[in-house]
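Q: How would the structure tokens look for this protein?
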Amino acid sequence: MAREGPEVSVLVPCWNAAQWLAAGAASALGQTLADLELILVDDASTDGTVEKARRFAEADPRVRLVLRPVNGGSAAARNDGLACARGRWIALLDADDRMAPERLDRMVKVAEAVGADWLADDQWIEAEGTGWRAARLLLEEPAGASPLDPVRFLDRDPPETIGYGTLKPLIRRDFLLRSGVRFRPEAGRSDDFLFAVDCMAAGAACWLLAEPLYHYRLRPDSQVTGTSPLATLDHMLAVQSLAERSLAAHPDPRVGAALARRRARIELAALYRRALDAARRGELAELARLLGRQPALLGLLARGLGEAVVRRLRGDRLPTLANRPLFWTALG
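A: Here is the predicted structure in token form.
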């Protein structure tokens, strides 16, 4: 019997993405795996995104356009795309990112071979308009495919760093239908991170592929770069609480310890930022108070300054795990 639907459904949430959508959509439609559908979900854009998306849909029958009447964020847009997806596999692509031509073909073959429900590849992180060298994320992983457990995932998504929570996986649609896992709007810009946590909590077989097939664009006006560090850390703590509830029943006791480490790192990073702000303002009494509260801050401030100098001299300015280990290694 002939299989219904395409091999892969590529979900692309779009909000005011007219400037980048052409490159991202073209990278999906130009895949060597041609048996796909591209679902462009416009999240009530106010620029020319819808017009560009319509042109793609008119030119290629594999493109489907979904229009949301009100803006709900990327999680809501992805859920709308998922509701109408027909592929055996679900691939995630942000509207301002791109994929290597062989990405989906390679990922599907690897995922089928290892029996993965969730497979994420390495990514090139590219800081737009900076001239900084692009950086890879999965440099600490073995070559080829390797299993990913919640402990490793949590330990490699520390604060102040672009970590594993930004990975864009390929997910088996049958797993999502069975488990009921969906993207959670309450996670805000951390919906990728919480989605991965929820998949792991639901028992997904998760794997990594240490090949850089995804191009992640870090824009100066994005939610990641346009939010103050302390506001970002407050957001991370809120999402951390959601992750703790999701993984509360996990049978591996190491997962609870990894969650505790991640929370402690976020809290330490918040103290670090407050100490930096106090030092910059010359508020010595406040700085002394913070150092008294957490004596390890003095060493962290010195290490943070040293890291910044080394990154600037080497030209490796992007805050990835390889370039900024400060809070990755803190607290063990």
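The beta strands are 8-14, 36-43, 63-68, 89-92, 98-99, 118-127, 135-136, 145-147, 170-172, 206-218.

The longest helix spans residues 253-281.

Upvote if useful.
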